Amino acid sequence: MAENEYAMPPVTPHLVVDGAAKAIEFYKAAFGAEEVQRVPAEDGERLMHAAVTINGGLVMLMDDFPEYGDGQGSTPQALGGSPVVIHLEVADVDSAWKRAVDAGATVLMELADQFWGDRYGQVKDPFGHTWSLASPKPE
Question: Where is the VOC domain (predicted)?
Answer without folding.
Answer: 7-136
